[in-house]
Amino acid sequence: MTPLPPRPDPDTGEPRPPRAPTVAGAWAGHAERGRRTESFRPAREQHWFHRPEPMLELAEARRRRPLRSIATYALYTALILGGGTALVMWGSPELVTDPVPYVIMSVAFLLGTGTAFLVRRTHTVYAGATWAGDAEDKDKLVSTYDLTRIRIFGRPGPSALLQIIAPDKTFLELPLGLVEANPALWDLLYNGLRHSAAAGAEVDPTTRDLLHLPPPDHP
User: Fold this and answer.
1) C-alpha separations of 131 from 14, 142, 157, 182 in Å
2) Are 203 and 151 in contact (CB under 8 A)?
3) DSSP helix/strand/coil, 55
């Protein structure tokens, strides 16, 4: 049996894991504009996540379909603003014919949706030695060495997503082309995938073959 590479130190990331296999390819599905990778030496202290270990790697790129990514947000915003306006008018019927509430609601909707578009038009992935997170929810991260499920959605290519799920059901869905764009980030993440797969994480056969992951209890 081939032993698994060691788990890196959470503060330094050393020893660095071996090179991870190419699956989708660097930047698959991402336009050239807006690409950015960064490695932090020394490790960068981060305050976004509840996990104390520092950040080591980052990858960022423009989304393929930024408008689609904020459609749900825009719908929720419209429902909340519309409901709030309806409650105000229910308590003050004389405002039904007043244009001011409608103008305020429209301006708030446009500002909120516009801000969401500017924030969400890029996708950013962070990684420490033993964890990963993204800018979708800065309070959410996943420990990569105790995953309960690993899955790739779609064949390798522009739309391929890597889903990783922790024991507490916290999950991330990471574009493979984005994480592979920063080789050091992908190496750290992949080493955690290997350890989790060997420890018994649920991995479907297609994902196991694509990622060359070891079977449970046979590292």
Assistant:
1) 14, 6, 24, 15
2) yes
3) strand
What phi and psi values does residue 46 have, to the nearest 5 degrees?
Answer: -125, 145
CB distance 36 to 182 below 8 Å? no
H or E element, residue 81? helix 71-91
Mean pLDDT by 10 residues, the chain (219 residues): 87 94 92 90 78 90 66 61 64 66 66 56 89 80 95 87 94 94 97 95 94 76
- The DSSP bridge pattern shows strands 122-127 and 131-134 to be antiparallel
Length of the chain: 219
What is the reported pLDDT for 7?
96
Compute CA distances 66 → 34, 122, 161, whole Å: 13, 8, 16
Rg (CA), the chain: 21
The residue whose two tokens read 């007043």 is: 98
Q: Point out which residues pair with 53 in neighbouring strands.
A: none
Buried b or exposed e, range 27-47, using 16+ CB within 10 angstroms: bbbbeeeebebeebeebeebe
11 close to 44: Cβ distance less than 8 angstroms: no
Q: What pLDDT shows up at residue 219?
A: 46
- Alpha-carbon gap, residue 48 to 35, rounded angstroms: 22
State both tokens at 191: 């080493």
Q: What angle do CA 183, 123, 147 make, to 5 degrees?
A: 65
Question: Which amino acid is it at 156?
Answer: P
DSSP symbol at 10: T
What pTM does this model have?
A: 0.77
